[in-house]
């Protein structure tokens, strides 16, 4: 016989779930007395006068916080019932009632982990006090268990968050889950990147197989915010044995589902609230770790793709520069011969062809230099040169190009005497590419300014620090403090967005698409400038705003007396 007594309206209105108590005594009077007395103070009480009924309640879905049982009952003693209850819930509070509190009985209750011992007959206050104390001990025990579980979760979190290999991480997550919540089989269902791809399933032990109903249950868990339980349905299989009880928990990162964890076992411990709470905590950490590993994998893939792209670009430079130089030399030679021997329109047409061929030669020469730089074959031959003279030579060379657009190139020198040991050819390449770039991207009748000045190290730090980072600026922190010779080329062109400034010194990068842009070139000139800056221990950067033009700065370090690079 058994009866259910609901808590009083007072406890229900408190908004807190009352503690659940199971009273077991073969004496109907004692059982009813205890059940009513405890129900009146707000506990949710179940009672049973038969051991089988008590076992059904203990094994049922409703969690029992405290077992109040008589020590002597037909078929199964209260001590044996307490042991069964403790196996199902190690933190359950237990009080044994007996009319004869012998020393042997007390020892037996202690060995079985019984929380308290109550001697019949007892007063109502004694009963309530014993129950309050037992529940308080249970709460403390639960806190200790929770802390130990949290410590294990923390260790597991540290372990899984240091793994970036996705396959290894999945195995470790399953291992940790089985360690926290013992089970017969565990499955991690990892969602694919696209909906048309099947989900990946990782199983433990190796012979475990997830069944269709288990796979569907794991996917159902993705729509929940916490653990989901399933019983009576085949979820997994080990050999010929099917497992019909499981707990599913979603794995999320930043609100996005990345997979689900399914644990299967025939033991009721798997469905215990403490097991589900532990699994939920682990799932929170696992979801983030899985997403990080996926992002790392994507980053690695992108990195390898970029490396392959760089390899292909370098190979293209090598092949193009080698295959084009010989036939181009022949074209230039014959075109010059035709021009020199021709007259009138024939001479004019030959000159136009020669100009175009010279443009192609300039691109090929740039490719060769970049190839040499990649192979560390680009060397410097420094000699003392007045930097102002090199600027004048570069401007003189490019003045005819500027004249075609009715542009003017002004030279602004704050220091005409600065002489540095530089490689003349390399410096003319730097100046030529910077000035040519300004001519290309400036409108008709524009004024382009080329300046030279000396800056202190603090000025360089401020200017470069405000600029968009590039490969040369990132080296600034490794350079010794010194003075700098700064060449600045300013143009009134359309200017550059921040996104364009981030890539302006990359090889083959062009502000406009190759098929729609108005200006020529292969997108190699500024890349060569950056490489030559690094080769000479210098810096290059751009200051620009859309619609406000651009200023390209090239800086070389030198000793205080102007003796040369430091």
In short:
This protein has 566 residues and is an alpha/beta fold. Helices cover 47% and strands 22% of the residues. Helix 5 (103-111) links the parallel strand 5 and strand 6 (116-119).
Give the topology, please.
Elements: E1 2-5, H1 9-13, E2 20-24, H2 28-40, E3 44-48, H3 51-58, E4 66-70, H4 78-88, E5 93-98, H5 103-111, E6 116-119, H6 124-160, H7 166-180, E7 185-190, E8 200-204, E9 208-210, H8 212-220, E10 228-238, E11 241-253, E12 256-264, H9 273-341, H10 344-374, E13 383-386, H11 387-403, E14 408-413, E15 419-422, H12 424-440, E16 447-455, H13 457-466, E17 483-491, H14 498-503, H15 525-535, E18 539-544, E19 550-558
Parallel strand pairs: 2-3, 2-4, 4-5, 5-6, 14-16
Antiparallel strand pairs: 1-3, 7-8, 7-12, 9-10, 10-11, 11-12, 13-15, 16-17, 17-19, 18-19
Helix pairs in contact: 6-7, 6-9, 7-9, 9-10, 11-12, 12-15
The CATH topology annotation of the largest domain reads as Heat Shock Protein 90
Number of helices, where a helix is a run of at least 4 consecutive DSSP H or I residues: 15
How many beta-strand segments?
A: 19
Q: Outline the biggest β-sheet.
A: 6 strands, mixed
Principal-axis shape equals elongated
Helix-residue proportion? 40-55%
Look at the structure and give the mean pLDDT.
82
- The CATH superfamily of the largest domain is known as Histidine kinase-like ATPase, C-terminal domain
Helix/strand/pairing class, anyone? alpha/beta
From the alpha carbons, calculate the radius of gyration and give it in angstroms. Answer: 41 Å
Query: What is the domain tally?
Result: 3
CATH class of the largest domain: Alpha Beta
Tell me the quaternary state: single chain
Distance between the first and last residues' Cα:
98 Å
Low-pLDDT segments, ≥5 res: 1-14, 513-517, 561-566
Biggest sheet, strands in spatial order? Answer: 1-3-2-4-5-6
How much strand? 15-25%
């Amino acid at each position: 016989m058994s009866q259910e007594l609901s808590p009083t309206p007072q406890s229900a209105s408190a908004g807190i779930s009352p503690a659940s108590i199971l009273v077991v005594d073969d004496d109907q009077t004692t059982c009813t007395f205890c059940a009513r007395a405890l129900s009146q103070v707000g506990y949710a009480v179940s009672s049973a006068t038969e051991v089988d009924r008590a076992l059904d309640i203990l094994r049922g879905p409703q969690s029992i916080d405290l077992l109040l049982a008589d020590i002597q009952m037909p078929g199964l003693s209260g001590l044996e019932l307490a042991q069964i209850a403790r196996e199902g819930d190690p933190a359950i509070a237990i009080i044994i009632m007996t009319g004869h509190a012998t020393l042997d009985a007390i020892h037996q209750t202690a060995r079985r982990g019984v929380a308290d011992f109550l001697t019949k007959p007892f007063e109502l206050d004694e009963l309530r006090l014993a129950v309050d104390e037992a529940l308080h001990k249970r709460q403390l025990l639960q806190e200790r268990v929770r802390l130990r579980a949290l410590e294990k979760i923390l260790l597991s979190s540290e372990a899984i968050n240091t793994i970036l290999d996705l396959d290894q991480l999945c195995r470790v997550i399953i291992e940790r889950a089985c360690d926290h919540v013992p089970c017969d089989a565990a499955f991690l269902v990892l969602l694919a990147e696209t909906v048309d791809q099947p989900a990946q399933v990782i199983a433990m032990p190796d012979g475990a197989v997830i069944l269709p109903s288990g796979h569907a249950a794991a996917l159902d868990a993705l729509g929940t915010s916490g653990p989901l339980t399933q019983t009576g349905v085949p979820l997994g299989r080990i050999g010929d044995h099917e497992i019909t009880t499981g707990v599913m928990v979603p794995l999320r990162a930043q609100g996005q589902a990345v997979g689900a964890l399914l644990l299967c076992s025939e033991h009721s411990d798997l469905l215990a609230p403490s097991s589900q709470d532990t699994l939920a905590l682990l799932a929170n950490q696992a979801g983030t770790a899985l997403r990080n590993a996926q992002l790392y994998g994507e980053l690695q893939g992108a990195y390898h793709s970029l490396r392959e792209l760089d390899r292909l670009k370098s190979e293209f430079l090598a092949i193009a520069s080698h295959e084009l130089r010989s036939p181009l030399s022949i074209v230039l030679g014959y075109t010059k011969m035709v021009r020199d021997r021709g007259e009138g329109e024939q001479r004019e047409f030959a000159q136009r062809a020669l100009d175009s061929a010279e443009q192609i030669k300039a691109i090929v020469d740039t490719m060769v230099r970049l190839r040499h730089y990649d192979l560390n074959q680009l060397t410097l031959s420094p000699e003392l040169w007045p930097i102002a003279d090199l600027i004048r030579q570069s401007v003189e060379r490019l003045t005819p190009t500027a004249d075609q657009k009715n542009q003017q190139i002004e030279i602004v020198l704050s220091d005409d005497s600065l002489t540095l040991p530089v490689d003349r050819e390399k410096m003319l390449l730097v100046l030529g590419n910077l000035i040519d770039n300004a001519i290309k991207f400036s409108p008709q009748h524009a004024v382009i300014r080329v300046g030279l000045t000396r800056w202190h190290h603090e000025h360089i730090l401020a200017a470069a620090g405000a600029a968009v980072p590039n490969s040369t600026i990132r080296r600034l922190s490794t350079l010794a403090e010194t003075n700098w010779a700064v060449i600045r080329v300013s143009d009134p062109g359309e200017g550059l967005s921040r996104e364009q400034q981030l890539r302006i010194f990359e090889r083959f990068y062009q502000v406009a698409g190759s098929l729609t842009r108005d200006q020529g070139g292969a997108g190699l000139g500024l890349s060569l400038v950056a490489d030559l800056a690094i080769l000479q221990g210098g810096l290059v950067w751009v200051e620009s705003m859309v619609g406000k033009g651009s200023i390209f700065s090239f800086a070389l370090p030198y000793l205080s007396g102007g003796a040369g690079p430091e």
